[in-house]
């Protein structure tokens, strides 16, 4: 096999791969967190944005030609990428291209994931890739795409689908596959009401991650054919994959940890509850997602900020943080932070208490506040004596309370209309 005889096999493949990140979705299940930004632009993990994870995976995998397709309220996303991802060298044919929805082929916005790629085929052709890697821009994970592309080539596949095992209940929100012993896809059902379980494990199903590798010419042919089908919704999961598995070589690539062989870390932070939980996981002593991993760093735009500061040591006014993550630029002034995650430039004033909360950048919390199990959106100014997460019935009258009791607070809910111009 070529992979065994050529030590540069994978690097040659990644060099000739173009990654396309689909980053145009609103992410409506995140409620008011996406009122003014696309889901991939939502902050995560104290200093990152969701888009940083697939972008970092590309760079760490040796893929340095990346196109980001945007659509819904993309300004925040575009600014972040321009600030933090401009370090590639054009003279080496390295780039991260931002491609807004432009109605290049028709007078309509993207109808589906396949249509988003189809409407930019002329741009893809201009880069002349051998392989096209299509990624969702809204998941949290660390993955070596080079190994997946190598498996795709070794199997002489037309298309390879990244997959993971999920519970049957979770599988209802995914594309679910059944495969043969070699991993070739036999069936594919998008968001089935009754997912088919794995033969050796009746409790889980094999779900698509929304990650695809295509041979480039094959992708051109399939997208052009799909565009002519007036009955198609022009979506990879609903239309492209089900059609291909009957006559083409479509294989799965299981997403597993390279060392343990077990299911690797992957999170869809598509709801307020999932977003809160994934951030809370990072606070644990040994989180499954290691942000301190020097072998696979997560890159981002790093604002130049002073260190976090904790002030006052009075008996009833002591600035402290316990079992928490606190980012640069934060000032905890005589307040107590417990099991919480503070993004950059958060200021918490005297006698306030935070517990089990995620506080996004540039938030100011007044004095004598009590906040529990909350997500506070960027730029909020919390008035003195505010209580959040203490009385959920009262909270529901002014904030957004999730099914699991997480209270989402945005500036608009306080009448602080940061995004309006008068």
From TrEMBL:
Pathway: Glycan biosynthesis; glycogen biosynthesis. The keyword Ribonucleoprotein does not apply. Residues 306-409 form the Glucose-1-phosphate adenylyltransferase/Bifunctional protein GlmU-like C-terminal hexapeptide domain. Its EC number is 2.7.7.27. Pfam families: Hexapep_GlmU, NTP_transferase. Alpha-D-glucose 1-phosphate binds at residues 110, 175, 190-191, 208. It is an enzyme of class 2 (transferase). Keywords: ATP-binding, Carbohydrate metabolism, Glycogen biosynthesis, Glycogen metabolism, Nucleotide-binding, Nucleotidyltransferase, Transferase. Residues 19-282 form the Nucleotidyl transferase domain. The record marks 71, 109 as: Could play a key role in the communication between the regulatory and the substrate sites. GO terms for molecular function: ATP binding; glucose-1-phosphate adenylyltransferase activity. Involved in the biosynthesis of ADP-glucose, a building block required for the elongation reactions to produce glycogen. Catalyzes the reaction between ATP and alpha-D-glucose 1-phosphate (G1P) to produce pyrophosphate and ADP-Glc. Belongs to the bacterial/plant glucose-1-phosphate adenylyltransferase family. This is Glucose-1-phosphate adenylyltransferase. It comes from Thioflexithrix psekupsensis. The lineage of its organism: Bacteria, Pseudomonadati, Pseudomonadota, Gammaproteobacteria, Thiotrichales. The gene is glgC.
């Amino acid at each position: 096999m070529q992979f065994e005889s050529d030590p540069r096999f994978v690097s040659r493949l990644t060099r000739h791969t173009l990654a396309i990140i689909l980053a145009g979705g609103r992410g409506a299940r995140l409620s008011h967190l996406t009122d003014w930004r696309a889901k991939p632009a939502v902050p995560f993990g104290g200093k990152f944005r969701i888009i940083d994870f697939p972008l970092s995976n590309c760079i760490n995998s040796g893929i340095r030609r990346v196109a980001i397709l945007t659509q819904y309220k993309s300004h925040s996303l575009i600014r972040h990428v321009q600030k933090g991802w401009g370090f590639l060298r054009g003279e080496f044919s390295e780039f991260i291209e931002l491609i807004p929805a432009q109605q290049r082929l028709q007078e309509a916005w993207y109808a589906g994931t396949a249509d988003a790629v189809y409407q930019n085929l002329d741009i893809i052709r201009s880069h002349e890739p051998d392989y096209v890697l299509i990624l969702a821009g809204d998941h949290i994970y660390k993955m070596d795409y080079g190994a997946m592309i190598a498996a795709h080539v070794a199997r002489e596949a037309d298309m390879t689908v990244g997959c993971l095992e999920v519970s049957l209940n979770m599988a209802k929100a995914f594309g679910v596959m059944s495969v043969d012993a070699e991993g070739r896809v036999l069936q594919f059902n998008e968001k089935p009401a009754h997912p088919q379980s794995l033969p050796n494990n009746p409790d889980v199903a094999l779900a698509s991650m929304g990650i695809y590798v295509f041979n480039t010419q094959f992708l051109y042919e399939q997208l052009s054919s799909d565009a002519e089908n007036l009955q198609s919704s022009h979506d990879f999961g609903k239309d492209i994959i089900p059609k291909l598995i009957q006559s083409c070589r479509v294989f799965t690539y299981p997403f597993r940890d390279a060392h343990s062989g077990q299911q690797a870390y992957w999170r869809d932070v598509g709801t307020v509850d999932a977003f809160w939980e994934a951030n809370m996981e990072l606070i644990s002593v040994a989180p499954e997602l290691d942000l301190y991993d020097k072998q696979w760093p997560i890159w981002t735009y790093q604002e130049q900020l002073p260190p976090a500061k904790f002030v006052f040591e009075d008996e009833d006014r002591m600035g402290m943080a316990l079992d928490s993550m606190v980012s640069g630029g934060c000032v905890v002034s005589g307040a107590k932070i417990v099991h919480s995650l503070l993004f950059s430039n958060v200021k918490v004033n005297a006698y306030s208490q935070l517990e089990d909360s995620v506080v996004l950048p540039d938030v100011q919390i007044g004095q004598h506040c009590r906040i529990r199990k909350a997500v506070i959106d960027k730029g909020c100014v919390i008035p003195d004596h505010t209580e959040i997460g203490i009385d959920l019935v009262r909270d529901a009258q002014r904030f957004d309370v999730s099914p699991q009791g997480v209270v989402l607070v945005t500036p608009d809910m306080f009448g602080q209309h940061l995004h309006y111009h008068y």
